[in-house]
From TrEMBL:
GO cellular component, one term: membrane
Family from the record: Belongs to the short-chain dehydrogenases/reductases (SDR) family.
Protein name per Swiss-Prot or TrEMBL: NAD-P-binding protein
Organism: Multifurca ochricompacta
SUPFAM superfamilies, per database record: NAD(P)-binding Rossmann-fold domains
Keywords of this entry: Oxidoreductase
Any one GO MF annotation of this record: oxidoreductase activity
Length: 254
């Protein structure tokens, strides 16, 4: 299956933006202060959605609002400065891997933070048959030395998204790997910058594609913005549905 690194025709958001496909719909974007979250908010605003920006401080959400309004002057934006987790105040560790507080804080952010948002959004999403699109990572399926906190947190998040439609059938949930994007977080990871060669625009376009109901068969299933969705549906959809693939499970080859 082809790997995409930037927006390609099947997920090109131009038509959804031109048709204002999300007019009258409200989209909550957490982690909206920068990087993927900011670009996702901008893309939905261009498509006509009313945006709720959630970040840690008022200055962060104010700055993002200003940048969106420069490009989308009529955008309807609500702002919420919310800390979605309660991080422990610890001293800077000599190494991240050795600091148990830092390890747990990663789970607080990546799992508990999402849980808190989903918990309070579910009653509204059930009424509107809404969608949750959670940013997971390919690391959820890997075992990266000295990154167990991140890998475990994203694995648990992906699993959590599998449970949402099981426990709340009126709500669709999509755990999405956005690609290897050079964000502030990836810059601080210590890995070479050349590994992060996917565009944030691709992630936003793919998320918009899912939110528009164009791939609801992926409900409760892991997918990557970098997978060519046309090839995925042509070559793998039937097998994935038949065999219950793209979910976390133990597997022994026959």
């Amino acid at each position: 299956m082809s790997k995409e690194s930037s927006v390609y025709p099947a997920v090109d958001p131009s038509q959804l933006i031109s048709n204002q496909a999300f007019q009258g719909k409200r989209v909550i974007v957490t982690g909206a202060s920068r990087g993927i979250g900011e670009d996702v908010a901008f893309t939905f605003a261009r498509a006509g959605a009313s945006i709720v920006l959630v970040a840690r401080t008022e200055s962060q959400v104010d700055a993002v609002e200003s940048r969106i309004l420069e490009q989308v002057p009529n955008a309807q934006i609500l702002k919420a400065a919310v800390v979605v987790m309660d991080p422990a105040k610890v001293e800077v560790a000599v190494t991240r891997a050795a600091d148990p507080y830092d390890w747990w804080n990663t789970l607080e952010i990546n799992l508990r933070g999402v849980f808190n948002v989903v918990r309070y959004a579910l009653p509204h999403l059930e009424k509107s048959h809404g969608r949750i699109i959670a940013i997971t990572s390919i690391s959820s399926q890997l075992r990266v030395p000295f990154a167990s906190d991140y890998c475990v947190s994203k694995h648990a998040l992906t699993r959590f998204m599998e449970f949402v439609p099981i426990e709340h059938p009126k709500v669709l949930a999509f755990p999405v790997h956005p690609g290897a994007i050079l964000t502030e977080l990836s810059k601080a990871s210590g890995y070479p910058a050349e590994l992060f060669n996917d565009t944030v625009g691709l992630a936003s376009a793919y998320i918009l594609h899912l939110a528009a109901g164009n791939a609801d068969w992926l409900n409760g299933r892991y997918s990557s913005a970098c997978w060519d969705i046309t090839e995925l549906e042509r070559d793998w959809k039937e097998q994935a549905l038949e065999k219950g693939a793209l979910v976390n499970k133990l597997y022994l080859p026959q």
